[in-house]
Design goal:
mainly alpha
């Protein structure tokens, strides 16, 4: 099961890098967002995130990056709720 989660998170990171390379978006460090997604994956529907249109995908990924704190918390800061939340 964990291998499948890692595979999906890698797909999210790949899509993010592609979108960032095609635009003037602020770049998110791949290792950082990977760790944040892994930390919070129980709260997220990764399949839904991957299927989102570009705008909603970016909204969630940038929000997850901004509002995930590296601690044992399973909550997003400042009441952020990704659109792909379970």
């Amino acid at each position: 099961m964990e291998k499948e989660i890692v595979r999906k998170i890698k797909l999210v990171c790949d899509r993010l890098e592609k979108l960032e390379s095609e635009s003037v978006l602020e770049k998110i460090d791949r290792t950082t967002i990977f760790m944040q997604l892994f930390q919070m994956h129980e709260l997220l529907d990764l399949n839904r995130l991957l299927a989102f249109p570009e705008y909603e995908f970016l909204h969630d990924v940038y929000g997850i990056n901004r509002f995930t704190e590296f601690n044992n918390s399973k909550e997003f800061a400042n009441c952020f709720l990704p659109r792909c939340a379970k």
